[in-house]
């Protein structure tokens, strides 16, 4: 049967969705709209090209425009959708008028939160997102001596590290007492802060942004800590869902501002799905809705939602949020939440932690790995984990998210077998030691 | 109450046990006997010193003799126990006579299987184990031009890689059609074989050892493939349990030749425990007893058995055997078993596999990661996994062993969230892709 799916958005969510529709129904007509000049590039690589860890932007493109044509995915570039009409099953497209669909997928992604201070219209305020713009900004960076990064968000953390790595004097301004305070605990971030200092970063925590100063071009950032002269500002405020089209059409929006979806990624409007950063998804343990997840989540949601929009049947469930990123000279990561979030949510927990190593103590390249595990008192089921180290953080984060999801206890993790091979792993796996230490603490306290 | 535990063996099992006794009962008298000059060194590092990845042997020592004295662990070096008497609660010690104990722990480890061919008494046949001997052999290696490694066992695989890395012309002789055939599948080993060829290794598979030739010193190895002239032979035959003391005393010995123990690591004789490579432990899925596990298993068994011998209460359960090691220019690993073993045991399975990557496709240092998952038909519960790649193999192997233990299905693994951060992980986690591919195959075959 003829079937047409319209997708608004060409990011990880939108392209995952396009693939999902085609997987369920290879005959389906799939039209993707994006405001950008490209799809199928990795925005996640941009900070690393700026930091010169990656040599050039061309490397970030995943597929050519022809490959999409071949795959039967009709991408309309630099084309804005201005409204959706779920009743009439149409979208209004700039330059195309009303376009009809059988199923619609919203993958409109995120915006950086408006800093909400004077001077927002000055030049040299850089919002990192579009790759063509990033290519232009990269040339600007060549003449930048001092930059200010606004907020130690995940992107702010990456950009601070990258700009410092590039040799730019970098200031980081954040209202919280430590970086990434909304997800990571202070003990996890302490080594990162130290390494930033070694790299010449000037961190301004507990510092409120008051405005951007300058004539035409930004020349300083005004903060509660005083003025910081600079040539460029990276505005890495936290992400907010771009759910405007959905809200205007009366779709249900959640408490975070994200579009509410069910396990099929279906919105409150029949035939309309939403995927990626424009949605909100419940946390697996707390059921608290989360917005602003990652590109990896957006892609997976896209595949599930796309499949359903194409007539298939896939579910996407609550999330346990493994995360990880390089930060300063370290790699940080975790799953679910840490102590700060647990405390803020009023969730009681016990802790097991260990300072371990990534290879045999004597093997060249061995690095420290700190693991902190949070468990529910009594049951000792894992409810969260945080780490700082180097090698193997991403793989451990993936595992620990599954451990939270499947309710592994400190006992399960303390009894876990592990590979010991000098070049790749230590006699004692840090996760096992952390769980064992957690049990020992409880025993000493007479609670086990 | 006064309590004395005697431990026979100063390897990973014996020292884990000494710590376990002290943890349960800090007042206990702990006496350790070892035939060697040292305890508390890592034999696992020896191949890498020979290969010059690690600069010197001193690095492999973990603790000084004084530290054991301080910890109240009385180690008798170069001292052989010649018999045990579980009824009389004594051991017979060379040079000390009968020594009594309250509890006894056997941690006598493994021997390399006797190659069982003529010429076994020639010089320059190297059995890698004792660190003092390894230090002497390392000097010999300086003048070795050609070496032959007997058997592509885990140690043989490491030694082949190390000797080639050191620049020695290395021959590998093995009766099976591919290396590590008892644990790894041929598709996993194919890249390893290729990389060995690049490193100048001459592999002789399907080749039977017939004898060692020479006058006083070995000068050639005689095989079904002809004579291989050489200056040195590394005898890396598979491990066999060293259970002689136990067998002589009438303790129950299992089908593999290992001492039979229960979940407390208790043997058939009251008050006598056994830990490490002298025991056999059931596989968690098949219940088939396994011998010759790893140093990591020996250490964990030691801690459990030692704790029980000291009056505590710990269990050590059936194993799911995560494993991993560098091999040639690759890292291989897995959990539970692969296709070869499953087929040999008559265990039906379905496969999901993927050729993935370790970082973003465009990030410097990205490496391929092949993941192969085996699941039980119908339930699709994971029963084994094998991998070849570089980064993150050890962490994935640890995770996959837990996935087997806890019965994760292809569905669970396909729905797994994963960290995407260009420098540390790809958009698609290879384990997730392997499980997804497995499901797709089943769907195509109409079996899902
Ligand atoms: C610099 C940077 C680094 C990142 N690093 C990582 C990382 O390391 N790991 C990770 O997992 N994720 C990373 N991300 C991903 C990111 O955080 C998001 O999670 C991800 O981009 C969400 O994907 P999405 O498809 O939902 O939305 P977006 O990527 O925001 O895409 C939205 C799309 O919708 C289009 N659009 C919006 N409104 C309209 C309209 N009205 N009409 C037409 N088109 C419209 C846009 O043109 C765009 O194509 C990074 C992103 C950036 C920008
Ligand atoms: C070269 C090499 C590389 C290895 N690499 C790895 C690796 O990468 N990863 C890993 O996990 N494991 C590795 N191992 C560990 C190994 O494979 C075993 O699993 C481990 O050594 C078993 O420990 P164990 O304490 O049970 O026995 P063993 O290490 O064999 O120790 C046996 C001890 O018993 C003593 N003993 C035996 N009989 C008597 C007696 N009659 N009287 C007194 N003392 C006695 C010996 O002196 C010795 O101290 C390696 C081992 C070697 C030798």
TrEMBL record, chains A, B:
Record key words, sorted: FAD, Flavoprotein, Oxidoreductase, Redox-active center
Sequence ranges assigned to domain FAD/NAD(P)-binding in this UniProt record: 4-282
Pfam families, A to Z: Pyr_redox_2 (PF07992), Pyr_redox_dim (PF02852)
Keyword Acyltransferase: no
Cofactor dependence: FAD
SUPFAM superfamilies: FAD/NAD(P)-binding domain, FAD/NAD-linked reductases, dimerisation (C-terminal) domain
Gene3D superfamilies: FAD/NAD(P)-binding domain
A GO MF term: oxidoreductase activity
InterPro entries the UniProt entry points to: FAD-bd_OxRdtase, FAD/NAD-bd_sf, FAD/NAD-binding_dom, FAD/NAD-linked_Rdtase_dimer_sf, Pyr_nucl-diS_OxRdtase_dimer
Key word NADP present: no
Domain Pyridine nucleotide-disulphide oxidoreductase dimerisation: 338-423
Origin superkingdom: Bacteria
Family, as annotated: Belongs to the class-III pyridine nucleotide-disulfide oxidoreductase family.
PANTHER family linked: NAD(P)H SULFUR OXIDOREDUCTASE (COA-DEPENDENT), PYRIDINE NUCLEOTIDE-DISULFIDE OXIDOREDUCTASE DOMAIN-CONTAINING
Name of the protein described by the UniProt record: NADH oxidase (H2O2-forming)
């Amino acid at each position: 049967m003829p079937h047409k799916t319209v997708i608004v958005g060409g990011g990880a969510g939108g392209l995952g969705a396009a693939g999902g529709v085609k997987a369920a129904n290879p005959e389906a007509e799939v039209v993707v709209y994006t405001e950008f000049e490209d799809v199928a590039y990795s925005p996640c690589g941009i900070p690393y090209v700026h930091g010169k860890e990656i040599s050039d932007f061309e490397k970030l493109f995943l597929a050519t425009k022809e490959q999409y044509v071949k795959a039967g995915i009709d991408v309309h570039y630099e084309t804005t959708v201005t409204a959706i009409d779920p009743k009439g099953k149409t979208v209004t497209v700039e330059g195309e008028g009303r376009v009809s669909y059988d199923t619609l997928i919203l993958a409109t992604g995120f915006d950086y939160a408006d800093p909400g201070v004077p001077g927002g219209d000055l030049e040299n305020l850089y919002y990192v997102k579009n790759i063509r713009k990033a290519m232009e900004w990269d040339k600007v960076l060549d003449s930048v001596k001092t930059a200010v990064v606004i907020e130690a968000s995940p992107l702010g953390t990456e950009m601070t590290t990258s700009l410092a790595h590039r040799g730019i004097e970098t200031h980081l301004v954040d209202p919280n007492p430590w970086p990434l305070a909304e997800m990571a605990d202070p003990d996890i971030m302490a080594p990162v802060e130290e390494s930033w200092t070694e790299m010449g970063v000037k961190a301004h925590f507990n510092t409120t942004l008051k405005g951007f100063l300058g004539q035409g071009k930004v020349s300083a950032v005004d903060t509660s800590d005083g003025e910081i002269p600079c040539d460029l500002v990276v505005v890495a405020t936290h992400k907010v869902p771009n759910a405007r089209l959905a809200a205007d059409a009366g779709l249900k929006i959640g408490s975070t501002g994200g579009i509410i979806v069910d396990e099929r990624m279906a919105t409150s409007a029949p035939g309309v799905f939403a995927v990626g950063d424009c949605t909100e998804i419940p946390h697996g343990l707390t059921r608290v809705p989360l917005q602003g997840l990652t590109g990896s989540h957006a892609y997976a949601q896209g595949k599930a939602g796309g499949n359903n929009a194409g007539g298939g049947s896939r579910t996407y469930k609550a999330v346990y949020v493994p995360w990880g990123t390089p930060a300063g000279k370290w790699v940080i990561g975790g799953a679910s939440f840490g102590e700060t979030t647990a405390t803020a949510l009023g969730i009681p927990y016990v802790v097991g932690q260990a300072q371990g190593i990534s290879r045999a103590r004597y093997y060249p390249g061995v690095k420290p790995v700190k693991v902190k595990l949070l468990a529910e008192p009594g049951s000792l089921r894992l409810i969260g984990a945080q780490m700082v180290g180097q090698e193997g953080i991403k793989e451990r984060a993936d595992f620990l998210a599954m451990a939270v999801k499947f309710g592994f206890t400190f006992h399960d993790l303390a009894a876990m077998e592990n590979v010991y091979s000098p070049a790749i792993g230590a006699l004692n796996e840090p996760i096992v030691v952390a769980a064992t230490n957690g049990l020992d603490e409880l025993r000493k306290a007479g609670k086990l």
